[in-house]
Amino acid sequence: xxxxxxxxxxxxxxxxxxxxxxxxxxxxxxxxxxxxxxxxxxxxxxxxxxxxxxxxxxxxxxxxxxxxxxxxxxxxxxxxxxxxxxxxxxxxxxxxxxxxxxxxxxxxxxxxxxxxxxxxxxxxxxxxxxxxxxxxxxxxxxxxxxxxxxxxxxxxxxxxxxxxxxxxxxxxxxxxxxxxxxxxxxxxxxxxxxxxxxxxxxxxxxxxxxxxxxxxxxxxxxxxxxxxxxxxxxxxxxxxxxxxxxxxxxxxxxxxxxxxxxxxxxxxxxxxxxxx
Amino acid sequence: xxxxxxxxxxxxxxxxxxxxxxxxxxxxxxxxxxxxxxxxxxxxxxxxxxxxxxxxxxxxxxxxxxxxxxxxxxxxxxxxxxxxxxxxxxxxxxxxxxxxxxxxxxxxxxxxxxxxxxxxxxxxxxxxxxxxxxxxxxxxxxxxxxxxxxxxxxxxxxxxxxxxxxxxxxxxxxxxxxxxxxxxxxxxxxxxxxxxxxxxxxxxxxxxxxxxxxxxxxxxxxxxxxxxxxxxxxxxxxxxxxxxxxxxxxxxxxxxxxxxxxxxxxxxxxxxxxxxxxxxxxxxxxxxxxxxxxxxxxxxxxxxxxxxxxxxxxxxxxxxxxxxxxxxxxxxxxxxxxxxxxxxxxxxxxx
Lengths: 276, 351
Prior knowledge:
The complex is a heterodimer of chains A (276) and B (351).
Chain A: H1 2-32, E1 34-37, E2 40-43, H2 46-49, H3 54-86, H4 93-105, H5 108-119, H6 124-131, H7 143-167, H8 171-179, H9 184-213, H10 216-221, H11 229-237, H12 243-265, H13 271-274
Antiparallel strand pairs in A: 1-2
Helix pairs in contact in A: 1-12, 3-7, 3-9, 7-9, 8-9, 9-12, 11-12
Chain B: E1 4-15, E2 18-29, E3 33-37, H1 44-52, E4 59-64, E5 67-68, E6 79-82, H2 94-104, H3 109-122, H4 138-150, E7 156-160, H5 168-185, E8 188-193, H6 196-202, E9 205-210, E10 213-218, H7 220-225, H8 230-235, E11 240-248, E12 251-254, E13 257-260, E14 270-276, E15 282-285, E16 291-300, E17 305-311, E18 314-320, E19 329-333, E20 340-343
Parallel strand pairs in B: 3-8, 3-9, 6-7, 7-8
Antiparallel strand pairs in B: 1-2, 1-4, 4-5, 9-10, 11-12, 11-14, 12-13, 14-20, 15-19, 16-17, 16-19, 17-18
Helix pairs in contact in B: 2-3, 2-4, 3-4
């Protein structure tokens, strides 16, 4: 009876997993590992072989590089914010929290479009700069613009896991550390930082993975000059109609991301993070 | 006893306009085991936190060996605290936890090793170096917290209800261990608890507090035998408290009768309160006692029976190893040494 109850409760979740995760993954694998000669369907590694091309590997390397830079910026910008948010001395906590959450209430595409109008050649910022006699500048169409877009869109995903792991540190523990002679600096390095590592790692995961695979940011803010691996995959499914090749690249990216995550997770023994 | 190590002078402290301490004065002598005792909200923990430097008083002075230490942060004070809730560092093992204070002070490595080993032996946890705090029981964790404080060789250890979360048996064991520790280390212990038995067992001096004010300071024996007012009498152990009149020195009237007593110095015919501990009331066969009454109820409490005896409009709580029958008529004897006279206090605000 108890078993049945459990099964009933788990059913929607299992259905969800199967329909929206396992089935699509199986389909991707199907497309990636097959090739059709006329009407005959064959198992083949051809799609993977055709990925091994200098220009495509370069795109993959660029994706990893830009996402890594964005992740690093998010970490160093987000950690202090998370600490300030978690500190009990900060009175306007709610306001600051809302400020960081508010952009997430808006559609991702809209937000990125908004930056396009702000930053483009004849955009708001250039108009103002021009009026001030500072001339116009090219902000878009380069790697910096793409990194900027990633940081802007993904920063909250770095801040909140760190914020919640710092919040979980009991004030008792910090008082005990102070009591035992540690000052603000050693309290940070020996207590707060090590105890917030789980948050840092999940923040890194939540910024790095979408960063590697994005194609919207590179298309909008990169103006087509900065091609990321996400763009290539998207092209295969849309314009090129080469689903097999797109699926193969997706699997390659998936494996690369898994390896990256595995390396990151070497740094912790916290089970909740290794789950990610 | 030795010189003052801590003086609290005219300390006042409020949280959000609620006064917690008002005009609080207390001195603590070197090597003393002093206990701040009172119900929750009486200001005892706040007093401890002010000494530790975690809270700042609104007014008043905190002196350490006659030096004002209010501007000195907790990490620069040579005191260590054992906190109420387990406050071990969860990411460090037991060795690292105990070594923390010494590492911060940049002590040499072999000194730290030796010290931690010594402390682990002292708290009976040798061999637990590599364990994480969450794999230890509550009592073990609290012992580690004590060891972590002791290795720093502080001049004062502050205890904030360290045994509150432990079960009775363990608590009693730890009380004896703490007392032993105190005697062997020669460190001043300032201890906060709401458990009167704990205070009586361990302390050299007890400070009974209520509503941010000191009700009585004294040795455990003084506090128990000569409570100054109704609050102290009720808070420390069970007691019968009845109204009476002091007729003259060594003579008091209560329960409709005159009694001989050992107290003096009250006004003639002054209204007073009389405290009599339940174990000091002697039951004798009906008609042979100073008072006579009827047994209302009898409860077995292990070492003794607890009985309620009705005499007119007073119900006496009596403890005796010999039970009576409910409904039986008995006599009551109360001897001069067992009658404690207190000034009348507006007791309604207490308890």
